[in-house]
Amino acid sequence: MSPEQYLKKWVPINEKMRQENFLWGTLFENDEWHQYMSFDLYKMPKYQWNRIIKATQEIAHILQKTYKILCDDDSLFLQLGLPASTHGLKNLISRYFSYFARLDLIVNGDEIKVIEINCDTPLGYLETSVCNRIICEEHDCQSPNHLEENIQQAWEQIKQDYSIKPTDAIYFTSFNWHDEERESVQLIRNNCLNQQTRYIHVGNIVISENGLFTPKGEKIDYLYRLYPLEFLDLADEGRDKGLIFIDHIAKGVVKIINPPSAFIMQSKAVMAIVYSFLSQGSTLFTVEELKLIEKYFLPTYFDERFFKDQTYIAKPFWGREGGGISIFDAQKNVIDEDRTAYYYRQKRVYQKYMEMPEATISTWDGDYTGKLLIGSFLINAMPCGLFLRVGERITGNLSMFCGITI
Fold first, then answer.
1. What is the mean pLDDT of residues 376-401?
2. Which residue positions does the secretion signal occupy (predicted)?
3. Which percentage of the chain shows pLDDT scores above 70?
4. Which residue(s) pair with 255 in the sheet?
5. Between 147-161 and 179-190, two packed helices, what is the crossing angle to 10 degrees?
């Protein structure tokens, strides 16, 4: 297919997605436009889909148990590397470590490994719901993803767990200038049914000693935020206000969604702690649970010296979108890395490198062969959809997503 023929097909599909608020089919980076949406469809065998769903459930079980252990063990909790200002947040116990999460998985043959836990501020909602449905319609098949249904169920659970009344207002926040974040929040908001909801730009939240308010003086008691909590402490500007915000969360002045537990479990240190339960033969887990850790979790440590004659990867505690990641060969030479300053200077964990399988998708520049990463959404503690991206060894902003069916 020539570039002209490809774009003749791509543009109408992208327009359909734009009409449903997916506005980032292309991304401007490094002074040029890049394709992000590929209308290709990955046809996954039913047995593989079922294995990924089962793996998601079993990994979630290990993470949920780990969360409870971390809340009860101060020495383990300190290994997470959380800002000192946030330590009091562990006393706010949540039913689930996250109501809205995405696990990033490498699925290579019969092997499934989790490499990331995106449980504080995950993205990829519109790609997995709206875009996947449109791509499947173009291919005359059905999307197997059902995010919206699970999001609605999550809100019913949240309203029960937070004792939110129908007359209470839930505020939703993100950066209003960031299309992906704003529209992702709106999708989450639109599926919070039978409830008063309002959107507020994160920069417009008024932080005072008495609580959080809108510019009109309306008090914010419940806040869904697509804003990482560590930014409140680690930000170069506005840290004083951020610390007041954190204190309000700890004292219950404002109740946030995702809860603080999602922030706690977002630390990449969790991966090293989970693997330590296996390597040290922890009695906190059953034999069957330790086998699940061995099956799904890669060797991960706080010290790179554990890796001898092996390729491994270094990940910052609070890395996102591949920021600050380095890949080393067996001789400790850098193979690939991202040096985004904010992430690169953070503490890091070291994880055994596992090669992702290759996948080829069509683009407006011709066929592209890259590494396939599978995101598995866990919403309201239930698997509900897969998000496929094809990119380089380090899956970053410029990886492309494609549709999936079974």
1. 93
2. none
3. 99
4. 222
5. 70
Residue 5: phi and psi, rounded to 5, are -65, -40
CB atoms near residue 335 (< 10 Å): 13
Backbone dihedral angles phi then psi of residue 19, each to the nearest 5 degrees: -65, -20
Helix H or strand E encompassing 378: strand 366-379
Q: Is the pLDDT of residue 322 over 90?
A: no
Q: Give residue 37's identity as a one-letter amino acid code.
A: M
E strands, 263-354, are: 300-301, 312-316, 326-328, 334-337, 348-352
Which tokens in the block code for residue 284? 């906190």
Q: How much is the pLDDT for 321?
A: 79
Beta-bridge mates of residue 43: 405
Give the CA angle between residues 264, 320, 186 to the nearest 5°: 85
The answer to whether the beta carbons of residues 368 and 351 sit under 8 Å apart is: no
| pLDDT tens digits along 59-71 | 999 999 999 999 9
> What pLDDT score was predicted for residue 209?
96
Contacts of 116 (CB under 8 A, 6+ apart): 103, 104, 268
Phi, psi of 101, rounded to the nearest 5 degrees: -140, 160
Surface-to-core class of residue 356, CB atoms within 10 Å of its CB (0-12 exposed, 13-18 middle, 19+ buried): buried
| Cβ 219 vs Cβ 254: under 8 Å | no
Q: What angle do CA 278, 279, 283 make, to 5 degrees?
A: 50
- Is the pLDDT reported for residue 191 higher than 90? yes
